Structure formats: structure tokens, C-alpha cells
Amino acid sequence: MAIKVGDTAPDFTLTDQNGTSVSLSSYRGKPVVLYFYPKDDTPGCTKESCAFRDQYEVFKSAGAEVIGVSADSNESHHKFAAKYQLPFLLLSDKGDKVRSLYGAKALFGLFPGRITYIIDASGKVQLVFDSMLNFEGHVQEALKTIQTLQTA
Questions:
Q1: What SUPFAM superfamilies does the record point to (predicted)?
Q2: Share above pLDDT 70 across residues of the chain, in percent, rounded to a whole number
Q3: Per the domain annotation, does 128 fall within a domain?
Q4: What does the alpha-carbon distance between residue 41 and residue 52 come to, in Å, rounded to a whole number?
């Protein structure tokens, strides 16, 4: 079942690009931008991740953390983050277990989807943005929602 606005974001633990275990629950008390993307170092995913990188300080100044998730290995994430100076966590979701937990559907049932969730400080989902081709839209919508949460 797909996670929607108003739902409590399911907790999970995955490893990051450095092999460190990261749990979503450890970010409770601050907003989280959780974005699922198809594959490291592909044109669309690079464009999306670099757009998040370029706005990372804006997210941080609003008290939010950015976390990317794909099925790629920790080693692949490490290379991708280093190549494009990505300052945020990239988590390895082997077997797409967390993607399934969130109901982040695949395009045509074949390609992992590109979906961004904004989770507020209390763990509630405030935005679900699902667009395979609007790479910058993920960042723009995430920023709008984070800024709304900041003023609430």
C-alpha cells in the first residue's frame, strides 16, 4: 500500500555510502527529504541529485536533512557521491525492501520510480511528489513544503 500525505513514515534502517547503518527514526525532531531514485550516475538521477546538492544548504538552514535511496550498492553510492560532491546520505536499498514498504511504484512495472517524500519533525508525511521526468520539480516541491513547515 502506497504511503500518502498524513501517514506516519515507516521507519527503516539501511546502510549509507560509507557502510554506516542509518535509521529514519534517528532524524525524528527534524524534517526529512527522502527521495527514491532509480540508479546512480545515470543522466536523470545525476540531474536530480545535483539539484538537491545545489539546494542542500537551503534545506539545512531550514533544519531539514536530505536522504537519497536506491538499490545501488554502498560502493556505487560512494563513487556517485564523490564524483558529484553530494553532501547528503545515499542509502542502499538492496532488494527494494524500503521502496516496497513505501509503495514507491515502478514505472511500467519495470523501472524503479522517482518519488520524493517530505516527512515532518513528528514523522508524518507532508508531501509525496511522483514524477519520473521532472527532475528539478522534486527539489522545487520539496523546498516549498519545507519552507511551509518552517513557517507553520
A1: Thioredoxin-like
A2: 96
A3: yes
A4: 14
Beta-carbon contacts of 117 under 8 Å, excluding residues fewer than 6 positions away, are 3, 9, 32, 33, 34, 35, 102, 125, 127, 128, 129
**pTM as predicted:** 0.94
Report if residue 6 sits inside a domain.
Answer: no
List of residues 6+ apart from 92 with CB closer than 8 A: 14, 15, 16, 17, 70, 71, 72, 73, 74, 76, 77
50 catalytic, yes or no?
no
Catalytic residue among 9, 14, 24, 45: 45
How far the first Cα of the chain sits from its last, in Å, is 29
Q: What DSSP character marks residue 135?
A: H
* CATH classification at residue 71: 3.40.30.10
Q: How many CA atoms lie within 13 A of 129 on its CB side?
A: 23
Read off the C-alpha cell for 99: 521502496
- Mean pLDDT taken over the chain: 93
- Domain count for the chain: 1
Residue 18 covered by a domain: no
Q: Flag whether 10 is in a domain.
A: no
